[in-house]
Amino acid sequence: GQQVMQIPQYQHVQEGEDFTTYCNSSTTLSNIQWYKQRPGGHPVFLIQLVKSGEVKKQKRLTFQFGEAKKNSSLHITATQTTDVGTYFCAGRRGGSEKLVFGKGMKLTVNP
Amino acid sequence: NAGVTQTPKFQVLKTGQSMTLQCAQDMNHEYMSWYRQDPGMGLRLIHYSVGAGITDQGEVPNGYNVSRSTTEDFPLRLLSAAPSQTSVYFCASRPRQASADTEAFFGQGTRLTVV
User: Fold this and answer.
1) Helix/strand number for chain B, H first, E second
2) DSSP string, A59-84
3) Mean of the per-residue pLDDT values for chain B?
4) Interface check B39 vs A, CB under 8 A
5) How distant, in Å, are the alpha carbons of A102, B5, B25, B59 from that of A38?
6) Is B48's CB within 8 Å of A50's CB?
7) pLDDT in the model for residue B39
8) Secondary structure (3-state) at B74
9) CA–CA distance, A109 with A14 (Å, rounded to integer)
């Protein structure tokens, strides 16, 4: 079945540092979505990437979709304490209606 | 703007009891789905529906039943609760668009403990 893997699962950074998290799929995806879940909250949509090689930015967050549409990355610049939470990637394979999520990357920030 | 509403927010069940987790959305979304979230396991798809009268299994459907009699409601039934079903359950909905996928809107979650 379709699998979406995220690495690392946990990341602890110092405030102000940059870091990158990765999402890899076992199959080619129609698109990839990223969500953020604050502690005690529910997942909230951040962005969707559709085209091969696509890059999108949201302030300090940069999202990239791989050329083969099987992997994606999220890069955060100058991490802030407000970035704390779990980041999920989710993908759907062409022809399937299932939106499958990765296990998430839990980010903690040392102020 | 209610969005996706889940009830109850918290529930404690005894092993073998049955219950229904409610999910309702007021956005006229075609797609609805149930996920469970466990530590280190991420969000796993239980069941999903692409419209009223249509449901299908996700990654972890065993022990759960669903039905979709209306566009608005997508209840999740546990027929005989087991401790392994202790989890946080999220309902999500999204509209159907012919050309592209759309974002999923999540409810606030139901924290279920089976003792």
Assistant:
1) 0, 11
2) TTEEEEE-TTSSEEEEEESS--GGG-
3) 93
4) no
5) 16, 18, 22, 24
6) no
7) 87
8) coil
9) 6
